[in-house]
């Protein structure tokens, strides 16, 4: 089949028109949209390693080392209310070189995947949405920001101050945690719990909602989707479990 000159002419004209109209769009977007992000809040998520393996699917090996499990670690930094980021913006080891020792320490995985695989997943799912603000527009900035926030919003220190210590014997009231965290995290944070085989709720994760300038108080929509992590309930005690290296899927027998 051959294209007639008329068809070619039409194609030529329409692509020319297309160029014209896309240029118009571009002008418009420069004026109206170029400085906007599709998200307003960032959810900074820190996790308590000792209870992480309770709900870990058995297809993943759980790897709990005493040393890594002593402190709160980073789970992620998530631009909120957004589903799809930019999955083809890949993370490469060379993006992170100088940060790796700190990331290994503060953002480790407790599965038998590699730390890099964990960071890669977080980057592709969440990090690539951060590119619309200058302070997050590269892997180095994104991972560096999370490390900075982990120091700024230091849960270990907040709990230590009021002597909240890991224990299988003593449970805490939700209000005890909230009172300890409010001075640090402001009014917009959520404690998440996982339920163990005996129906007890175990503190596993703390999410704090931040503005893009990393200060607290941003009002985010509640996330959609199902998770084994649920908001901790005030009606019952909450266990803050110590690490159990021998049987990390059952931290409190
Ligand atoms: C991780 O652990 C799972 C479950 O124990 C196992 O099936 C899988 O082969 C392990 N993968 C690696 C890379 O070690
Ligand atoms: C880990 O947590 C303990 C208190 O639970 C604290 O003394 C220590 O400074 C923390 N380490 C880091 C690196 O934050
Ligand atoms: C951060 O941004 C929020 C919302 O735009 C603003 O209300 C707040 O004052 C800012 N905080 C700082 C420290 O600039």
TrEMBL record:
GO cellular component terms, semicolon-separated: extracellular region; lysosomal lumen
Protein localization: Lysosome lumen
Broad class of the protein's primary localization: other
GO terms of molecular function: ribonuclease T2 activity; RNA binding
Signal peptide extent: 1-22
Keywords: Signal
InterPro entries in alphabetical order: RNase_T2-like, RNase_T2-like_sf, RNase_T2_His_AS_1
SUPFAM superfamilies referenced in this protein's UniProt entry, alphabetically: Ribonuclease Rh-like (SSF55895)
GO biological process: RNA catabolic process
Assigned protein family: Belongs to the RNase T2 family.
Name of the protein: Ribonuclease T2-like
Lineage: Eukaryota, Metazoa, Chordata, Craniata, Vertebrata
């Amino acid at each position: 089949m051959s294209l007639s000159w008329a068809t070619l002419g039409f194609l030529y004209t329409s692509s020319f028109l297309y160029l014209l109209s896309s240029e118009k769009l571009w002008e418009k977007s420069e004026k109206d949209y170029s400085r906007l992000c599709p998200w307003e809040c960032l959810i900074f998520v820190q996790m308590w390693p000792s209870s992480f393996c309770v709900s870990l699917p058995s297809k993943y090996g759980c790897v709990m080392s005493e040393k890594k499990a002593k402190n709160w670690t980073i789970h992620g930094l998530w631009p909120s209310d957004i589903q799809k980021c930019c999955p083809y913006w890949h993370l490469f080891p060379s993006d992170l070189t100088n940060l790796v020792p700190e990331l290994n320490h503060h953002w480790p995985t407790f599965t038998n995947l590699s730390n890099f695989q964990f960071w890669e997943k977080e980057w592709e799912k969440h990090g690539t949405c951060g590119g619309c603000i200058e302070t997050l527009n590269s892997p180095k900035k994104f991972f560096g920001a999370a490390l900075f926030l982990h120091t700024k919003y230091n849960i270990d220190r907040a709990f230590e101050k009021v002597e909240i210590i890991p224990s299988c014997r003593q449970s805490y009231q939700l209000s005890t945690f909230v009172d300890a965290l409010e001075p640090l995290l402001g009014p917009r944070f959520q404690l998440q719990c996982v339920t163990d085989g005996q129906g007890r709720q175990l503190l596993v994760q703390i999410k704090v909602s931040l503005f893009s300038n990393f200060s607290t108080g941003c009002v985010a929509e509640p996330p959609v989707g199902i998770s084994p992590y649920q908001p901790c309930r005030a009606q019952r005690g909450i266990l803050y479990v110590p690490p159990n290296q021998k049987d990390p899927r059952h931290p409190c027998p």
